[in-house]
Amino acid sequence: MDFSIEHLARLARLALTEEEKPLYRDQLVNILRYMETLNELDTAGIEPTSHVISICNVLREDSARTSLSREDALGNAPDRTEAFYRVPKIIE
Amino acid sequence: MDLYRLGISEISARIEKREISSREVTASVFSRIGSVEDRIRSFVTLTGDQAMDMAEKADREIVSGKRSTLSGIPVAVKDNMCTKGIPTTCSSKILQGFIPPYESTVTSKLLEQGYVLTGKTNLDEFAMGSSTENSGFFTTRNPWDTERIPGGSSGGSAAAVAADECIAALGSDTGGSIRQPAALCGVVGMKPTYGRISRYGLIAFASSLDQIGPITKNVRDCAVLLNVIAGRDPLDSTSAPVAVPDFTAGIGKEIKGLKIGIPKEYFIAGMDPEVEKAVRNAILQYASLGAIPVDVSLPHSGYAVATYYVLATSEASSNLARYDGVKYGFRAEGKDLIDMYMQSRAQGFGAEVKRRIMLGTYTLSSGYYDAYYKKAQQVRTLIKKDFENAFKTVDVILTPTTPTAAFRMGEKTADPLQMYLADIFTISVNLAGVPGISIPCGFTSGNLPLGLQLIGKHFDEETLLRAAFAYEQSTDWHRRKPNL
User: Fold this and answer.
1) What is the ipTM of this complex?
2) pTM of the entire structure?
């Protein structure tokens, strides 16, 4: 299995230190090899299970109801201004 | 008699007769917490002042005739269930300072009953682990031997029940996180059928596997607590529209003729001899109670751990994408927005969580999806069918809950895969979505508790509880207490 730990960490939005990269890479390779024992099984034609009980398309009336207030929704933000979350500048 | 030692049913009966008040029970529990918590460390947050207010409120309601089964009963809640106005951390630095603006459905139901919250219990960060050693804050100790782990991820809840720091507790179970610590701490823990209990307000780890359940001092209390928290919830579309029976109804009924499946894949050469002996003795005990042991096979059991770690890490990588340092919790400085995300997540998450997010990112990534995720979903179908086939001939299945008794702190932290294998006997139950319960079934020569797992058909918790109660009442394992 061939992958770049830098690329994977970036996809996962995780900054890794230089010391962490080889350590995580080795651990992930070890665990992925273990996962590959599933290839011993022939699963051709077997339906995948994404959900164990037979519920699908749960519908409800599209009616308005109360939700969190703006203050409650913003109350845990690490940084905010007025009614907005404040984040580092996005557009150059 | 020290009130903190009692279970729900005993306290509820004495409150009903007005022999004791909730304030007395709550004060007794907090005095116990005061004398043992520095050695056990079950709690991330203790809610002492609020608890006394809740107890006073319960006492007023009891006097005015509005008593429910859980009125005034001190219950501990795993710190991954949202409690409005009370910090909820998932034992993660990334949720540092997070105070939920809403209440989870399970704790709403406890509130309606007039329960008393003793505090929020420690867990492996985001419920990822089997020992609480992955907690971002500290490791909880096993009350039977404080050099050992209590199991996990609901280790704080199981230790709190075993150490009598609460009357009962709630945990959550994704791959064994209720049953494994219950076994290692010598208490009762149930993972109900997937869909039996609303997950609204349970902070998501792996949504197709996560389920909330009771951790209690005895089987009857498990049924009592399940009665309160079960049921369909419009706020969780995966909660099942299935009628909720009175789970205490079957308690005390005989088990003559009950067919108990013994899966050969769970009794293998090289298994821990003390675990094997305790579980074999339990099978004999069941036979003496009139149950009929039947050999069954769950042929894909050997693939359960690999299947689980593909599916659970995939779901986790998606669920944990929400922690971005913007909406709540911890934020680190970054030179731009992406860098802020990457630094916040790097500093906020612990090593095991990062490992699982990266694993899940890999298994879901373009080009690998079919090889890992789809493949694991197909094997999940095979594992589910194993149970369907076995339940054509038996009513319940009996296995050890864990491969060994509680291990020492640090014993399995060096190799993540070794830690994953601690859940080898509990994981299939989550993959199949069936209910499972762990009950005490003996002690090692070193006086460490061992657990027996009973597995049932979908939505047949009643039979599980009936079978568990019959065994419990014929033994005295559940009456033993750690020497603290």
Assistant:
1) 0.96
2) 0.97
